[in-house]
Design goal:
- This protein is of the alpha/beta class.
- The protein is 52% helix and 14% strand.
- Helix 7 links the parallel strand 3 and strand 4.
- Helix 8 packs parallel to helix 9, helix 9 runs parallel beside helix 10 and helix 12 packs across helix 13.
- The radius of gyration is 18 Å and the shape is globular.
- The two termini are 26 Å apart.
- The C terminus is likely disordered.
C-alpha cells in the first residue's frame, strides 16, 4: 500500500529536500495550503466565510527542536488571533493546534506545551472563538488528553481530536462524549503499528461509525472530519436517529478537497467547517494529505508529468 510508504517519507529529510526542490511542488501544495503568512491566509478565510462556511486554522509545523521555536509557534497563533479579532471573524474561525509544535516532545514538554497553548486558548476565548487540540501519533495522546482536560477547567469549549483507527479510541469517545465537549473524529493519518491501530481500511471505517455513534448519542458536540461520501451520509443518519438539530454537530473537511461538497452541505443548512492550514513548514502536512487519499497522490503525480 502506498499510504504507509508516504507516511514514512513524511519523516525523511532526504525526501523533504527532493519534494521541496521539485519545480512543480509549490503550485500543487497551494491546493492544500493557500498561504505562508497570516496576511496571505486571511483573504481565504474571508472568502470562505462569505460563502456560508466556517473555518479552523492550523499554522503548520511540528518537528521543532528548541524552546524558542515553541514560543515562536505560540506567537504565530497569537498574531493570527489578533488579525481575526481586527476583522471580526471570531465567530466563524477557530484554531487547530498540534502540541508537538508547542514543545510537547522536548524535555519537560508536557508542561511546556501547556504553558504555550494556554495563552492561545485564552486569547481565542476573548474574541469569541476556541481552539481544538489535534491528535498526533499514539505516544502523544495521554499528554494531549491531560492538557485538554486541564484547559477545559477554565475554557470548557476547548475541543480535541480522536482517531478512529486506534484501538483505544472507543473508550476515549465514551469518556469525552459529555455535556459541553467538542470532539472531532477523523480516521487517522499517522503511521501506527498493528499493536495499537487497525491497518485495514474496512476495519477503520467500521470503527469510525461505531465511534461516531457514541458521540452522536452522547451529550457533547460531534465534529465529523471526513471526505468520504458514505461516512458523511452515515453521519447525517446517526444525527437524525439521535434527534440532533443541524446546529448540534458539524462537518469538517480539508481546504482544497471536495470544495463543492463543502458548499452543498452548507446550502443544506449544515455547519460546514474548512480545515485550512498555512505556514512555511508545510512538508509533513502535505505528505499526510497525499497518504490519506490515493486521488491526492495521483493529482500530484499528474501535475509533475504535465510540468516536466
Amino acid at each position: 500500500m502506498l499510504g504507509p510508504a508516504i507516511l514514512a517519507a513524511s519523516r525523511s529529510d532526504k525526501m523533504r529536500r527532493i519534494v521541496s526542490a521539485a519545480p512543480v511542488t509549490k503550485p500543487v501544495v497551494n491546493r492544500f495550503i493557500p498561504g505562508e503568512t497570516v496576511d496571505q491566509v486571511i483573504p481565504i478565510v474571508e472568502d470562505l466565510t462569505a460563502k456560508g462556511l466556517e473555518v479552523t486554522l492550523d499554522v503548520v509545523g511540528e518537528d521543532i527542536t528548541t524552546v524558542e521555536q515553541s514560543h515562536a509557534a505560540r506567537d504565530a497563533y497569537l498574531e493570527l488571533i489578533e488579525q481575526l479579532a481586527h476583522l471580526g471573524l471570531g465567530e466563524t474561525a477557530e484554531m487547530s493546534v498540534k502540541l508537538s509544535m508547542f514543545g510537547q516532545a522536548l524535555e519537560g514538554g508536557h508542561e511546556l506545551a501547556l504553558a504555550n497553548v494556554r495563552p492561545v486558548v485564552e486569547a481565542a476565548a476573548a474574541i469569541g472563538t476556541t481552539v481544538t487540540l489535534d491528535a498526533e501519533d499514539h505516544t502523544t495522546l495521554d499528554s494531549m488528553f491531560a492538557i485538554h482536560e486541564e484547559l477545559r477547567r477554565d475554557f470548557p469549549q476547548t475541543g480535541c481530536v480522536i482517531q478512529a483507527y486506534l484501538f483505544r479510541t472507543e473508550a476515549d469517545a465514551r469518556r469525552l462524549a459529555a455535556a459541553g465537549s467538542r470532539v472531532r473524529i477523523v480516521k487517522g493519518a499517522y503511521k501506527e503499528p498493528a499493536e495499537v491501530a487497525y491497518q485495514d481500511k474496512a476495519e477503520i471505517d467500521k470503527a469510525y461509525v461505531r465511534i461516531l455513534k457514541i458521540l452522536m448519542e452522547g451529550e457533547g458536540y460531534p465534529m465529523i472530519g471526513s471526505h468520504d461520501p458514505r461516512l458523511i451520509a452515515i453521519g447525517q443518519e446517526l444525527a437524525r436517529q439521535a434527534g440532533r438539530k443541524l446546529d448540534e454537530y458539524e462537518f469538517q473537511m480539508l481546504y482544497g478537497i471536495r470544495s463543492e461538497e463543502h458548499l452543498r452541505l452548507a446550502a443544506e443548512g449544515h455547519r460546514m467547517r474548512v480545515y485550512t492550514a498555512y505556514g512555511t513548514d508545510w512538508y509533513g502536512y502535505f505528505m499526510r494529505r497525499l497518504a490519506e487519499k490515493p486521488a491526492n497522490l495521483l493529482f500530484f503525480l499528474r501535475s509533475m508529468i504535465t510540468k516536466n
